[in-house]
Amino acid sequence: MTRIPEPTPVPPSAHINRTHENHNQDQNGNKDNFSVPDIQLQIRDLKHPGAKRFLSAVDAADCMTTATLNLLKLLYHTPSDPETTVPPTSSVRLILEDIPGVAYTVGHGADNNIKEIHFSLSYIAQINPSRVADEINGVVTHELVHCFQYNGHGAAPGGLIEGIADWVRLHCNLSPPHWKQEVREDWDAGYQHTAYFLEYLEQLFGHGTVRRINDKLRSNVYAEDVFWIELFGREVKDLFAEYTKSFQDLHN
Length: 252
Description:
It contains nine helices and four strands, in the order E-H-H-E-E-E-H-H-H-H-H-H-H. The chain is α/β, with parallel strands linked by helices. It has one domain (38-251): Neutral Protease, domain 2 (Orthogonal Bundle). It has a four-stranded mixed β-sheet. Strand 3 and strand 4 form a beta hairpin. Helix 2 packs across helix 4 (132-148). It starts with 37 loop residues before the first strand and ends with a helix. This is Plant basic secretory protein. Residues 1-35 are annotated as: Disordered.
């Protein structure tokens, strides 16, 4: 879903490489070899202006494949590394239809392994012409994160789930120009607000911090009073207070 002046620069750890190959390759030539599930596209109104815009701006297979590989690289180690476990998502269908809002993702199947991303044709139709491809890639990337992330067995706050998705979008260089880093009252305000807090934690505790958060959401039922202390030895409210102070000190 898509919800900074220009955003505070965040060093990218994954780039859109516009390739159909089922792997990412780093500067040393090493391949991650992540598996991309079955991907499908369904357009429910080909005559809608948003459908023409989508088809003119992006290649759906390329968009979904690249976004999937980028998010897997950010949230998981390589498949041979047992430290994290990629969810058993077996297929993702991108459905373009005339719905209110921007987009949402749902899961089906016995293991919730069949995913559907519903993307608004009306929203696509009104995107600034200069940003159509980037915005489509950004929204699809965000929604695909929901197809591959963990949620603390359904107990994690929605703001954390949405924040992780937007954190991935930040690191794929797909943040829209209206995003800005600003402090909200709550750490789990969601979307880019929580994404920037997560980036603060990533820099404070080191590369792979958000990956660790996601993996703990796999193995534990989320309970705020123990989740953050077990990860970082500190309560999230204290971490957020430090983030707020560091932001205010930087901008005062």
